[in-house]
Amino acid sequence: ANYGPNPICKGCLSCSKDNGCIRCQHKLFFFLRREGMRQYGECLHSCPAGYYGLRTPDMNRCSRCRIENCDSCFSRDFCTKCKTGFYSHRGRCFRGCPAGFAALEELMECVEGCEVGQWSEWGTCSRNNKTCGFKWGLETRTRQIVKKPAKDTIPCPTIAESRRCKMAMRHCPGGRRPAKTKDKKKKKKNLMERAQKQHSIFLATDKTSQ
């Protein structure tokens, strides 16, 4: 039966002029639509956004999704599509993906990310593959990739990092310091030779003047 311009009783087993469908055919879902102060029943093949189909022996119904930030859901506890700006993860909606998961932007889903182990201890302070001979050097620590991501497009976090460090030994044994001592002795010897030469010139000049 039709009441008014719209076939509000389509798919109904029983229908009211004022309230629309009261009971639906076996395969359809009963949905109670609200418009302002008025509400009326409809029989639908699938439930609208924000609702999911709940099948019961008495009558199939459209039940509202109760999951926060969910647009459409499969059941009371599983969201199939989140609202704009939220990522879907195991039937829930998140602003950001939980630890250990990475955001797949094109699908707005959280997928298994790259898992890395703990950082190692900081390595020896060195520079140019030497652990002495400089005031400052670099020390490095690393960590291993425990599990690669499911998607190749998801990058792993850094697995090595370095920082500036002060070397324990600025001068290498038998290296720069002895070389400086040798140079110092050579410089002293040159000064002595120059002084002796100047003294000899002075004596020769003195004799001539006499």
Automatic annotation (TrEMBL):
GO terms for cellular component: extracellular region. Keywords: Developmental protein, Disulfide bond, Glycoprotein, Heparin-binding, Secreted, Sensory transduction, Signal, Wnt signaling pathway. It is found in: Secreted. One of its GO terms (biological process) is Wnt signaling pathway. InterPro entries: Furin_repeat (IPR006212), Growth_fac_rcpt_cys_sf (IPR009030), R-spondin (IPR051514), Rspo_Fu-CRD_dom (IPR043601), TSP1_rpt (IPR000884), TSP1_rpt_sf (IPR036383). GO terms for molecular function: heparin binding. Residues 172-210 are annotated as: Disordered. Residues 9-110 form the R-spondin Fu-CRD domain. SUPFAM superfamilies: Growth factor receptor domain, TSP-1 type 1 repeat. CDD domains: FU (cd00064). Pfam families: Furin-like_2. SMART domains: FU (SM00261), TSP1 (SM00209). Residues 172-189 have a biased composition (Basic residues). PANTHER family: NEUROHYPOPHYSIAL HORMONES, N-TERMINAL DOMAIN CONTAINING PROTEIN, R-SPONDIN-2. Belongs to the R-spondin family. This is R-spondin-2. It comes from Urocynchramus pylzowi. The lineage of its organism: Eukaryota, Metazoa, Chordata, Craniata, Vertebrata. The gene is Rspo2.
